[in-house]
Amino acid sequence: MLNINAAEQLSLFDLKSRSQSKEIGQFFTESKTADYMASMLHSIDNAELVKILDAGAGEGILTTSAARRCLEIGNRRVHAVLFEIDKDILTALEENMDQLVRIFIKKSGKFSYEILNEDFVLSRPDKHERDFHISVINPPYFKYNSKDSVYSGATSDLFKGNPNIYASFMAVVSSCIVSGGQMVAIVPRSFTNGLYFKGFRSYLQSQMSLERAHIFRSRNRLFKNMGVLQENIICKFVKSGQQPNIEIWSSTCSEDLAESEVVRYPQELIIDGSNRHNIIRIPESATDSHILRLVEDWPSSFEENNYYISTGPVVEFRTREFITANAQKNSIPLLRMHNVKAFRIEWTGKHWKDAHFILKKGHEKHTRSNKVYVILKRFSSKDEKRRLVAGIHDSKQFKDHLIGLENHLNYIGVKGEDMDIPEAFGLAALFNSTFMDRYFRSISGNTQVNATEIRLLKLPIRDQIISIGKEVQRVKGYEQSTVDEIVQSTLNIRDI
């Protein structure tokens, strides 16, 4: 290990205000996290000059850590190319790079750099330069309008879709580095699953081997000074075909990185190759990986069981003229997220959030038949303990022949037939079980429960689900421990 004394540590300038940073999707990396990310880099053999690419440099903390790591592992000639769109930060960036030059001289090395005040994605450096060995990045993240944004289509030659700007950063970086080159990124976990990132995942996996992923059990402590509640991961990729093993590291936050836990898994457990979605599953613990394996061995699936799932059709800001707080002669209940509880729907029309949907002209595309559904909340709050919450809508609860379902709900039924109550209880029990919630957290880093992910789920056969439902119907109160015991006993799940 290379020792750099306190006088040689880089002194970074004050960060910009939170509001300024968030406007451009910019969240700065703490030095401890930057050093940890750089520690993932391995030595670059047969390279007289190691080239570092910094796609969104900020004040240069990631390049600083990466360059110092190069010195530690024996690469003493380093050149960095740094992109930074914010001109107000360039002076700080240049001074920090100059200090790196001096550090390398003291260690009998040579560091050079080039700063480009350009937008990395729009510049597309991969069009003319693909010889970088290392890129350690904390890209901005924000969604953009696919119709009128300057970023729309900017990376369409690499992957289809415009999911989020950070995916574009990762894709262009992947295109810039040499065979065997390394990319370490701290990004939202959302790219690992979901329909929006399907094209990006396909491109990334065609170019890069996922070597290591680090997850944080606390969502809100990584960029705590910036007020960020996004679930982030650190991931290391190498430009090669996918290697047979992937390491999953975990810690609570950036404060306990030194005590991180690590488990090595076969790549087929982490990267789901059973369909074209290529979901990346990240178990938080050995227990979660055991659950993942058990579910993968289930004999059926959501679609093989003939279930369907749809998102509630009522988008409130588009249907305000249909929605009222007061009952009217020609109105029906409108179910919202607050109405969905485990195993039940609570709607009286008297709660201040309860709403009615008026059956006036044009209502047909916004209403559904009043029959038995399992209803899943599409969103959980940032700090909610459960990701999956499943209620049961019994058609007998309301006298109306139609029901309104708001867009923040998913509803599940059986294709070509009506779901009966025991089956609804069984499916709801499965979703409400601790076992299934832990499994879902391994396959989804989002607080949103997407219909696409539910359709891809492995499930027990319907007879087992109905058996679970009949057992749950016999108990009172639906205590979590009782539900878990019924689910695990019926499915012969042990040792978790």
What is the annotated CATH architecture of the largest domain?
3-Layer(aba) Sandwich
The poorly predicted ranges are: 1-25, 221-229
CATH class of the largest domain: Alpha Beta
The name of the CATH topology of the largest domain is: Rossmann fold
Shape: elongated
Q: What's the helix count?
A: 14
Largest sheet: 6 strands, mixed
The structure class reads: alpha+beta
Mean pLDDT equals 90
The percentage of residues in β strands lies in 15-25%
What keyword list fits this structure?
single chain, Adenine-n6-DNA-methyltransferase TaqI, Chain A, domain 2, five-stranded mixed β-sheet, 27% helix, Rossmann fold, 496 residues, 22 strands, disordered N terminus, 2 domains, 14 helices, alpha+beta
